[in-house]
Amino acid sequence: MGHHREQLVDLLQHRPSDPGLQTLINRVEQEHPTDLTSSADLLHGVWELRWSSSRQPWLKPTAGLENLQILDPVQGRGCNLLRLRGPLRSLGGIRVQAELKIADSTRVAVRFRQGGWIGPSLPNRQQLTLMRQVQQSIPAWLDITVLDQELRICRGNAGTTFALLRRNDLNLRTFLGV
Length: 178
Prior knowledge:
With 178 residues, the chain is of the alpha+beta class. 18% of the residues lie in helices and 43% in strands. It has helices at 3-14, 21-31, 36-39, 172-176; strands at residues 45-52, 65-72, 77-84, 93-102, 107-121, 127-133, 140-147, 151-156, 161-166. It starts with a helix and ends with a helix.
């Protein structure tokens, strides 16, 4: 696929705080532009945020937290999930659910619907939740700039760049109840 892309994936996996990531991300965006008209099916799945240009703590990867994005564009839905890593992940996390719509060859429109805390599952498989409706005042979107089976780079409506890697070990059904 390309030397720069392979180098980027390796850094995202093993050294996600490398200072050269922004430059490498820009280069891979130029070398491997995406077109959702032919590759939208690759969005489907569980993605982990590995790098972000944001200064917001909930949009930055950290060692003790998984920052996941679950996408099912065919069903028009997705969610962001921030949860603890390892055995404590069952205690719950913060989840924001959204409606998704592919708007054009690079853009996915996002309408946040509800967000809040999701807790552990009870013995009857019922999950504790404390969710509320999200009042989204401005349109949100993601411009997908690079997309393949393993790597996704996107830019949000606030100008933030995100680099995510697919998590094949996690099942979309677990998060969206499909």
